[in-house]
Every structure is written in structure tokens, then in C-alpha cells.
Amino acid sequence: MRIVVLTGAGISAESGLATFRASDGLWEDHRIEDVASPEGFAADPALVHDFYNMRRTRAAQAQPNDAHRALARLAQVHDLTLVTQNVDDLHERGGSPQVIHMHGALSGALCAACDARWPAPQLMYPGDACPVCAAKATRPDIVWFGEMPYHLDRIWPALEQADLFAAIGTSGQVYPAAGFAQHASRLGVECIELNLDSSANARDFDHRITGPASVTVPAWVQ
Ligand SMILES: CC(C)NC(=O)[C@H](Cc1c[nH]c2ccccc12)NC(=O)[C@H](CCCC/N=C(/NCCC(=O)O)S[C@H]1O[C@H](COP(=O)(O)OP(=O)(O)OC[C@H]2O[C@@H](n3cnc4c(N)ncnc43)[C@H](O)[C@@H]2O)[C@@H](O)[C@H]1O)NC(=O)OCc1ccccc1
């Protein structure tokens, strides 16, 4: 079966990584636009680097959970396209061979001057120079609000050719990811969501499995 799975922060919640919208959400003392937008980075690059250095440190200390591992097993049995909005590497450490990071990854660094990309050091600072053009314009290789997500040229066709679309641990509030279910559903693709509770675009799904991902995903993959 051709399956497209989209994951969000909820799949990493039981690994100890805070979600965005939860009361003690990731943005606890940061306004989203201050730390996840090009404007915020231009205004205060040190604040943004601190924020992503903290995220990189927490992600390195976290371990994949049974939901991450179950999706790795699913890829052995089905033609799986695994798309994540998450910037952590828990899918890869959970055994998933291929993961499409549509919002970038904490493990990447990017030069805003020459667009060069290289593996991110654990800690990044505003003065870091680009290894290619030496400009001091290095940033996390993360897709911020107002920026075009990555790999949409692979994601839309996979959605259109899928037999099944599943959204796991995502609140359905951020686009274009929140529009995938509606797009697939209109093409007759069966859509299912696995979440602690129903998401903002719950109407776009044919089925729902409610509960913590580390329990529901292994049971669904069986
Ligand atoms: C807020 C929203 C209204 N704004 C947007 O959607 C904007 C603007 C916009 C575009 N189109 C629109 C249409 C309508 C309205 C607005 C827009 N979108 C953009 O800016 C996008 C880019 C958006 C990407 C931004 N970057 C992120 N992340 C990287 C940074 C970082 O991570 O630091 S978004 C970030 O927030 C989103 C958070 O959502 P979730 O992952 O779902 O997490 P959340 O906490 O919300 O929910 C957790 C869920 O898990 C559940 N859960 C919790 N625990 C568990 C558990 N244990 N088990 C199971 N489930 C669980 C909870 O119940 C909950 O449902 C993710 O996408 C995440 O990646 N870019 C763009 O549109 O570019 C245009 C463009 C076009 C052409 C040319 C150039 C540009």
C-alpha cells in the first residue's frame, strides 16, 4: 500500500520534547514571531540562536519512543512516505530510513548570504562565519513562518498517489501542512488522524484514533 504519514510535535511529546500549543508549550516565554521568523532573526539573532541551541541540546538528550519505532517497521512493509514538521531527529534514531523534514532540521546550518548548507555544530552564535563565503550570516536550516517549506515538490505528488494519508500528533493549525488532509481527501484518499484529541482540521479525516502516540501508533501499525 502507498501510505503518506505526516507527523507533528505530538509524536515527540512522550520523548520529553515540548509541543508548541500545549500550555507549557515550546514557545513558553518566546513569541513565535520573535524566534521562528526571518524578521525575528534580523532583529535579534542572538535570541534566535539561543532558542535553537536549547532545542538542539534538548533533542540530543531525548530518545525516540514506540511511535517513532513503529513507523520504522511500517516502512518495511509498505511504500511509506514519511513527512515531518518536526526539526528533531527522533524518526531517524527510531530507525526510519527516509524522512522528509518539510520545516528543516536542527542538525542543519544555512548561510543566509550564499545559501550554502552544512552540518550544524551543537551551539551556533551570530558571529559564526560561513565556511563557503565567510559571511557572518549563518542561521539554523529551519523553515520559519513566511518561508516556503521544503520538498513540497515531492510531498504533493506523494499525497496525490497515496492509498492512505495519516496525520499523527499535529494540531492542524500551520499551513501548508494543515491542508494536506483536505487535498488528499478531495482526491478520494482515505485519511486518518492519530492524536490525543481532535485537530483543527478534524473534518478532513474519515477516521480518528484518540490516545498517546506511543500507544496508538504501534497498535495501528500492527
Ligand atoms: C499559524 C498559522 C496560521 N500560520 C501559518 O500557517 C503560516 C502562514 C500561512 C500560510 N498559508 C496560510 C493559510 C491560512 C492561514 C495562514 C497561512 N504558514 C507559514 O508561514 C508557512 C511556513 C510554516 C512553517 C513554520 N515553521 C515551523 N516549524 C519550524 C520552526 C521550529 O520548529 O522552530 S511550524 C511549527 O509549528 C507547527 C506546530 O504544529 P504541531 O507540530 O502540530 O504542534 P502543536 O503543538 O501545534 O500540536 C501538537 C499536537 O499533538 C497532540 N499531542 C500532544 N501530545 C501527544 C501525544 N502524546 N500523542 C499524540 N498526540 C499528541 C496535541 O493534541 C496537538 O494536536 C509545526 O508545523 C511546526 O513545525 N510558510 C508559508 O506559508 O510560506 C508562504 C510562502 C509561499 C510562497 C513563497 C514563500 C513563502
UniProtKB/TrEMBL annotation:
Record GO terms (molecular function): histone deacetylase activity, NAD-dependent; NAD+ binding; protein-malonyllysine demalonylase activity; protein-succinyllysine desuccinylase activity; zinc ion binding
Binding residues for Zn(2+): C111, C114, C130, C133
GO cellular component, one term: cytoplasm
Residue intervals of the Deacetylase sirtuin-type domain: 1-222
Cofactor: Zn(2+)
Binding-site residues, NAD(+): 8-27, 85-88, 169-171, 195-197, 213
Record's comment describing the protein's domains: 2 residues (Tyr-52 and Arg-55) present in a large hydrophobic pocket are probably involved in substrate specificity. They are important for desuccinylation activity, but dispensable for deacetylation activity.
Name of protein: NAD-dependent protein deacylase
